[in-house]
Amino acid sequence: MVFSSLLFLFLFLPAVLLLYYCSPWRIKNLILFLASLVFYAWGEPVYIVIMLISTVTDFIFGLLLSNSKRSPVWRKTIVVSSVIVNLGLLSYFKYADFLINNVNELLGTQIPLTELALPIGISFYTFQSMSYIIDVYRGTAKAQRNWIDFGTFVALFPQLVAGPIVQYNTIAEQLRKRSVSIEMFAEGVRRFIIGLAKKVLLANNIGLLWDTISSSDAGSLPVLTAWLGIIAFAFQIYFDFSGYSDMAIGLGLMFGFRFNENFNKPYTAQSITDFWRRWHISLSSWFRDYVYIPLGGNRRGLGIQLRNILIVWLLTGIWHGASWNFLLWGLYFGVILIFEKWWGLKLLGQSPRWVRHVYALILILIGWVLFAFDELPKVGHYLQAMVGFTGQPLWDSNTMYFTYTNAILLVVLIIASVSRKKLSTTNNNEGKSSLLNVAWCGILFFLSVSYLVDATFNPFLYFRF
Amino acid sequence: MKQKADRILVGGFVSILFLMSLAFFLMPKERFSELENRTLQATPQLTWDNLISKTFADQAESFVTDHFPFRADWVWTKSTMEQLRLQQENNGIFRGKDGYLFEKFAEPDYAKLQQYVEAVKQFADSHPDASMTFMLAPTSIGMYPERLPWKAPNYSEAKVNDFIADHLKDGLSFMDGFRFLSPHASEQIYYKTDHHWTTLGAYYAYIAYAEKMGWEPMSQEEFQITNVSESFLGSYHTRSQFSGLTPDTIQTYIPKHPVQTEMYIADTDKTFSNLYDDSFLEKKDQYSYFLGGVHALMTLKSPLDPQAVTTEKLLVVKDSYAHSFLPFLTQHVPEIHVIDIRYYNGSISDYMAQNGIKDVLMLFNTATFVDNGEILKIDD
C-alpha cells in the first residue's frame, strides 16, 4: 500500500485510527504491529516472510546481546551474524543480479540470473534492524524484551517502505510510553496533508514534464530543454521523497511518535557538504554513525579519512540501486566532498552567497543526471545536450511550450523549496493565522484527492478503433 | 485561537476520512461507467489464491477507485485546476482554438511503420487480380495544426501520409485524405470533441472514392440531412474532461430514394434492417450510432438495380472511420463485406477467395494506422 492512494486514505487509515484510539494502552502497539503487517502484506503478500525473518532474528540476537556476562568475542560474533543476515538478505535480493550480470560480462560465463523482484522497503528495514543490534552492542540502547514492541519498531507502517530510517535509540522510549495531544495530532494532520500535496500536486505533475523530456532522444534536445528537464527531475525527486517523509512523520505524530526530520530545504544549500546535511538526513546519519565513525572517521590520519569517505559514498551510491550509475553517483559526491573538505570550502567561503548557491545547484543537477539514467551512455548523451555538444539550438518552440505551460507550477515549486518552514511546520506562535492555515490544509487535501481520483480515471475509449 | 484551530483541523480531517469511507460503503455501486465507457471493477473475492497472488489487493484498489463517491466531480476539479495553471493539455488531449480538442500526435516509429506498410504491400502484391485502394484520412490535428495551443509540440500527419504514399503507390491506388479533405477544411468535417470525422467529412471521402471507382456520386441535395444529436461529447472529451465545451452535432444522410439495406453482424449472428442504432444516442459514446459500433465482421446487402451496378462485391478493411462512411457505399455496391482487422483473426485472403471478392478498400486514419500492429495480420 502507498499513502497516496484512496484505499489507504479512506479505508485503511480511518480503520487503524478507530482501532488504535478505541483500544486500551496495553494493546496499542499490537494494533500498530498488526496494522503494519496488513499494510506490508497488501503490497508483498509473499515477501512479508523475509521481513519477519529479519525481525525475528534481530529480536533474538538482541536478547542474546543483552546478557552482559558473555565474553566480548561472543558479543562480537552476534553483531557480525546480525549484519551478515541483514546484508545477506539485502544483497541477495538487491545486488545478486547486478553481480551476476557483471561477472557474466567480465568472464563470459552464463550464470543464470535470479530475476527476483526487490521486496518493498527492504533497504529501509534491514538498515533499521542493524541499527538496533549495533546500538544494543554499543550499549547506547537496551535490548527490547517485548516482541510486540520490537515488531512495531521494525514494521511501523508510517516509515516502513520509504523511511525515514529510524534509529532505535531515538524511538526506544516512545515505544514504551507515549501520548498524543490535540496539538500533536493536529501537527500530524498538517504534516501529512503537506506531504500528500507535495507528492500528488507537485512531484507527480512536474514528473510529467521530466517524462516527456527524458523520453525524447537526447541528441535532439536544445540546451535549455535539457536543463529544464533535469530541473524538473530535481523537483520531482525532492518533492516525491520529502513528501513521503512528511507523510510518514505526520502519520507518526498521529500515533504519538516523533521521528527525526529527513530533509531541510536541500536546494538552499551553499555547498555539496551543506547539501548532504540537508538531503535524506536519516540515511547520511546512518552511514556516519554505523560506517564512517566505526572505520575511524577523521581521527586516524588523512589517508584513512580519504578511504573512509570514499567507502561511505560508494555505499551510499549503491544503496540507491544496483547499477553502475548509482555507484558513479556516490563516487561523484565522494570526490566533491573530499575536494570541498580540503580546498573547496575555503575557496567558496571567499565568494559571494549567490556564487556558492549556483555552484552547489549546478553540481547537484549534474548529479541528478547520473542518478536518473541507469544506462551510462544515456547519462553521457544527456550531459552533452546540457552543454550543447549536440549542435542543437539554445531553445526551440517545445522549450517555450514546456516553460509557459509549467510556469505557474515551477514558481510554486521554487517557493516551496525555499520556504519549508512556512509550508510544512506548525505556526506555533502565529495564532492569528492558524484558522487560515486550517483552510489552506483543507484546500490542499481537497485538491490532492481530486488529482488522486483523476490518476485512476481510466476511460475505455473507442480510441484508435 | 491556536487550540481552536487545531481542534477544527483534527475534527475536520478525521470526520472527512470517516464520512467518505461511510459514503463509499453506503452509496449504490454502478456496474458500468457511462463517462469512462467501461465496466467497473466488481467486488473482489477474498480467497487464498487471490490473496497470495496479490489479485485481491489489486482488485480492491480498483474497486475503491472505480466506485469512489462523486468520482466525476473530482475528475472535473482536477481538469479545471490544470487549466487554471495554464496547462494546455489533460491526459494527452490538447485544448485547441475554436472549441476543438486534439489528441497529441508524436513522431511515429518509422521502423515499425515501414513494417506495416510492407505488410499492406505484400497483401496487394499477392492479389494481382484484385483492385485495391488504400484510403488514409488525417485526424483533426493533422488538418488543423494552426488551431493547437501556442507552440504545442506536434508532428505533421501530412509527412506521415507522404511517407506511406511513397511506399505504397506502386502496388495499389493510394488516396491521401489531405487531397480530398483540405479543400473543405473550413467546413465541419471533424467533430470538435471526438476523434472521428463528421458525416460531412465522410461524405467528401465518399465523393472522392466514387469518382475513383467510376460511380456517379450523389449530390447533397439527393439526401435528407438530419441532425440526430446535438449533445455529442466524444472521446476527446471523455479523456480530457475539459469543461465549458460546445457539444457536437451528429448528422445522418438518408437518401431521398432509400434502399433497404440488410446489415448482418457475423460476431453475434444477428441481422438488422437499419444501419443506425438509436440507443447509442442516449449514451456517452454516441458515435456507435453508426452501424452499432465495432464488429469484427459484417456484411451489408442492398437490393440495387443490377443494370446500374458496376461493382458487385466490395471488401472494406477498416477502422471506425468507416462507420459513417459505409452507408454511402450501400447506394452503389449490393454486397459489402466489412472486416475490422483488430478483431478479425481469420485469413483475409481466404475470405476473399471464399466470397469471390475482387475489390478491396482499406480505410484507416493516420493515428490508428501508425499505432496499430494488428495491421500486420493483413497478409496472414
Write the layout of secondary structure elements.
The complex is a heterodimer of chains A (465) and B (380).
Chain A: H1 6-22, H2 28-43, H3 48-66, H4 72-107, H5 122-138, H6 147-155, H7 157-160, H8 172-176, H9 182-215, H10 223-254, H11 272-278, H12 281-292, H13 302-319, H14 324-349, H15 353-372, H16 376-387, H17 397-418, H18 420-424, H19 434-455
Helix pairs in contact in A: 1-2, 2-6, 3-4, 3-5, 3-6, 4-5, 9-10, 9-17, 9-19, 10-15, 10-16, 10-17, 12-13, 13-14, 14-15, 15-16
Chain B: H1 2-26, E1 32-33, E2 38-39, H2 48-52, H3 55-66, H4 71-84, E3 89-90, E4 93-95, E5 101-103, H5 110-125, E6 131-137, H6 140-143, H7 157-168, E7 173-176, H8 177-181, H9 199-213, E8 223-232, H10 235-240, E9 248-255, E10 262-265, E11 270-272, E12 297-301, E13 313-318, H11 326-329, E14 335-340, H12 348-355, E15 359-365, H13 366-370
Parallel strand pairs in B: 6-7, 6-15, 13-14, 13-15
Antiparallel strand pairs in B: 1-2, 3-4, 4-5, 8-9, 10-11, 10-12, 12-14
Could you explain the architecture of this structure?
The complex is a heterodimer of chains A (465) and B (380). By secondary structure, chain A is mainly α. Helix content of chain A is 72%, strand content 0%. Chain A folds into two domains: 6-178, no CATH class; 183-464, no CATH class. In chain A, helix 3 (48-66) packs antiparallel against helix 4 (72-107) and helix 14 (324-349) packs antiparallel against helix 15 (353-372). The two termini of chain A are 35 Å apart. Mean pLDDT of chain A is 87; it is low at 422-432 and 461-465. Chain B is α/β, with parallel strands linked by helices and 380 residues long. Helices cover 34% and strands 19% of the residues of chain B. Chain B is built from 13 helices and 15 strands. In chain B, the strands form four sheets. In chain B, strands 7-6-15-13-14-12-10-11 form an eight-stranded mixed sheet. A three-stranded antiparallel sheet of chain B has the order 3-4-5. Chain B has a two-stranded antiparallel sheet with strand order 1-2. In chain B, helix 11 (326-329) links the parallel strand 13 and strand 14. Chain B is globular.
